[in-house]
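step=encode ok
step=design start
structure_in=
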């Protein structure tokens, strides 16, 4: 049986490797990785004081700036509103369709800091001919008359702030054509007059929901000789 030497201890192997490094690596200017790392850490620890002071001062400035911004928000500061002027907004609305003065005032109020600004713009627009509540009322009647009765149209005119005198005048005009307009609306929906109470109630509700007067509805649904 051949004899084998006992395994070398860890300390013995480490010492042997150190001797080999001293013999081979040092003449070539090589260094252990651990030695290089220790030197870098030592150099980092020797950074000039002014670098550290500059970093600390920069952090302090950022902190003060953040605190100032927060104070402004807490105080309720709001950025200046950007966008078209009140008059330009109003002209934009009017270029799409006619508006009553009261309706346009409600739309502009969201963009004005002072209600007086809105009134001044509306006065200027009326003077220049851009804004006319009377023209708006006539336009609304023209758009609604073929589908709705006088009661419903009058209600909408009042909601838009049209003058009572003009509303009364337009209501008389609508009442003069109420029967003919209601008959056309009824013909588009129904093919024949009601034959029983249920059918009568259904057709009457339809015409009433459109704003036509009850006397006109009775004439249409009860007159057997009307086409």
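sequence_out=
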């Amino acid at each position: 049986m051949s004899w084998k030497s006992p395994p070398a201890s860890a300390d013995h192997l480490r010492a042997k490797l150190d001797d080999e490094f001293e013999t081979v690596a040092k003449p070539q200017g090589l260094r252990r990785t651990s030695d290089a790392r220790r030197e870098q850490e030592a150099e980092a620890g020797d950074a000039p004081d002014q670098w550290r002071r500059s970093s600390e001062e920069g952090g302090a400035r950022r902190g003060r700036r953040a605190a100032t911004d927060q104070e402004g928000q807490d105080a309720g500061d709001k950025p200046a509103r950007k966008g078209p002027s009140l008059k330009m907004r109003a002209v934009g609305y009017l270029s799409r369709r006619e508006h009553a003065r009261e309706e346009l005032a409600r739309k502009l109020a969201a963009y004005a800091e002072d209600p007086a600004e809105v009134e001044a713009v509306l006065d200027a627009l009326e003077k220049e001919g851009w804004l006319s509540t009377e023209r708006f009322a006539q336009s609304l009647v023209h758009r609604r008359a073929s589908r709705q009765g006088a009661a419903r149209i009058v209600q909408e005119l009042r909601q838009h702030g049209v003058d009572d005198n003009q509303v009364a005048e337009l209501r008389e005009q609508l009442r003069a054509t109420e029967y003919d307009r209601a008959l056309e609306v009824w013909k588009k929906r129904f093919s024949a007059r009601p034959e029983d109470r249920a059918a009568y109630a259904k057709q009457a509700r339809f015409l009433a929901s459109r704003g036509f007067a009850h006397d006109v509805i009775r004439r249409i649904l009860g007159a057997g000789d009307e086409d």
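step=design ok
step=annotate ok -> The radius of gyration is 45 Å.
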